[in-house]
Structures are given as C-alpha cells and as structure tokens.
Amino acid sequence: MNQFGDIMGMVALTYKVMPDSNVDDVSADEIVTRILALKDETYDVQLCETKPLAFGLKFIQVHVDIYIRFKCLGVLRLW
Known about the structure:
Shape: elongated
Strand content: over 45%
Number of strands: 3
Largest sheet: 3 strands, antiparallel
Number of helices: 1
Structural class: mainly beta
Helix content: 10-25%
Order of helices and strands: EHEE
Radius of gyration: 19 Å
C-alpha cells in the first residue's frame, strides 16, 4: 500500500422496490429503466429485474455495488 493515495471500499446492496399499488398506471418496466440509468462511477447497478409477488403485484429487485473513495493523507504507526 502506498503511504499516500486513494483508498477504496465497496458495499454490495440488494434493494426490494415495491411500486405503490394505489397509484394508477405505474409501470415497473419504466422504473427499471430509470434505475439502470443511475449507474455511474460510484453506483454500479449490477442487476435490476421485476419479479412476481402475489395477486398480480410485482416488485423490483435491484443489486448495486457502491464504491467508496477517500484520500489517505498518511499512515499512523502506533508501535
């Protein structure tokens, strides 16, 4: 590891998005398209798909990798 430079971490998350069933004309496919458009250097949307729930309802499952970058200003040695 360099003494100075960028340090990066990664967090993997799975979201379950539930469209509001009380709202008319909610398109799960349009929501999937908008979620996939959020992909950038910080948020890497790995998978976004609709799945059946019950009684004709659907939910959207989203798998996202979030990259965390911060600057390291030095190494502190305690011994």
